[in-house]
From TrEMBL, chains A, B:
Organism: Paenibacillus pini JCM 16418
SUPFAM superfamilies: NAD(P)-binding Rossmann-fold domains (SSF51735), Winged helix' DNA-binding domain (SSF46785)
Lineage, highest ranks first: Bacteria, Bacillati, Bacillota, Bacilli, Bacillales
Superkingdom to which the source organism belongs: Bacteria
Name the UniProt record assigns to this protein: Redox-sensing transcriptional repressor Rex
NCBIfam families in the cross-refs: PRK05472.1-3 (NF003989), PRK05472.2-2 (NF003993), PRK05472.2-3 (NF003994), PRK05472.2-4 (NF003995), PRK05472.2-5 (NF003996)
GO MF terms held by the record: DNA binding; DNA-binding transcription factor activity
Function according to Swiss-Prot or TrEMBL: Modulates transcription in response to changes in cellular NADH/NAD(+) redox state.
Length: 219, 219
DNA sequence: TAGATTGTTAATCGATTAACAATC
DNA sequence: TAGATTGTTAATCGATTAACAATC
């Protein structure tokens, strides 16, 4: 498998499948069909079957998918059958919120270190972690096999932090800063800037411009 | 304009254009070409021209786009030529982080109220806002013409909060909870769940499974 | 004028969905 | 067996990119 190139859209749906499968598993549901998954997740059943079939024949005709087995397989596909360590840079409000979220993640992904360039932040505690100074970034990343970087610094610092992460050997970055990062093509970067999300929502609001009719009455 | 249906992908790029145009404007750059925009934003120039052309002829052949004029036009398209009020539900770490971000948003979008169901949160302050109890949600939304809801409650409460927001007249929702919300089709919902983003990143990590060669040597 | 750059059409590429044989 | 559901091919749909005439 993985011989065909898998599109990003497919990969992004895998964690969504995984999340609902975990829920089914907790409820001790043994089997699920693409139809049921589709209903719950607002996706087309054919799309779900096709997504999964890229990676193997996980289902059984006439039956559906075994929940536990599919969870195992998707974890393998996502490399979550091993623990993946992440580092967070920027111990502001958002950084602290994400660090705390750590313990909500049921999967094998963990923020194992937090950094900040501001001396007043260094040494403060976020749960079990102590905020470290930027000088220790590279060493910590290498010593702890940290592979993912999460950027929650202000926009003007983001590229600089990204460069440091990359030169320290990080493989992928989740960027919360509202800026487009430049990086070599082998580094995977996902933009997670919610200001973009929020502003684009405004497009879908009813205009209001049309609602006032010539005579001043509201329709 | 707006006669053709505009795809979500196009709309999502508009705030990204806007952000960079604002930066150019601050630097007093008067004019920009699709080529330069494309370079900065990692987008194809033809795509940028096409995106903008859906809404009007904003550029000038041989010259490019007038920065101030294009800012004005994109704001109009996104309904950001008027103030858009938003409400945030869930005053946990993430909610507080977002509320504080408020003042980073240069555009006409403002979180004007924060709610939480936990009595211990109610009455606490986040910047200039006081956390209110859920009982006041509907009234506050209507009294303040709040049109967008931001959900930062735990997953098991999210659907319930969405229902309340919708029945209070909200038009669009930004959902940070890791769950698929069900809503009538005229309500616009964007998922902003970063756990999905983070887990999907793991797919792109080098497997490591291949890196240990038969003789035990690492390649 | 010559060079630059738009707006737009046509070509390409990719993703989603429908349909159905295989089979549990 | 009859009903259900997969895996997969073909059809459809939509989005991106290339190319270029128009024109500043």
């Amino acid at each position: 498998m993985k011989s065909e190139k898998i599109s990003e859209a497919v990969v992004r749906r895998l964690p969504i499948y995984l999340r609902y499968l975990n829920e089914l598993n907790k409820r001790e549901v043994a089997t699920v069909s693409s139809h049921e998954l589709g209903q719950k997740l607002d996706l087309n059943p054919a799309q779900i079957r096709k997504d999964l079939a890229y990676f193997g024949d996980f289902g059984r005709k006439g039956i559906g998918y075994d929940v536990s087995y599919l969870i195992e397989k998707i974890r393998q596909i996502l490399n979550l059958d091993q623990q993946i360590n992440a580092v967070l840079v920027g111990a502001g409000n958002l950084g602290m919120a994400l660090s705390n979220y750590n313990f909500y993640l049921k999967e094998n992904m963990k923020i194992v270190a937090v950094f900040d360039s501001k001396p007043v932040k260094v040494g403060t505690h976020i749960n079990t972690l102590t905020v470290q100074p930027m000088e220790e970034l590279s060493e910590t990343i290498q010593a702890n096999k940290i592979r993912i970087g999460i950027i929650t610094v202000p926009d003007f610092e983001a590229q600089n932090v990204a460069d440091m992460l990359i030169s320290s050997g990080i493989e992928a970055i989740l960027n919360f800063a509202p800026t487009i990062l430049k990086a070599p093509s082998h580094i995977r970067i996902h933009a997670a800037d919610f200001t973009t999300d929020l502003l684009s929502l405004a497009y879908y609001l009813e205009d209001g411009k049309d609602e006032i009719i010539d005579d001043g009455q509201v329709k």
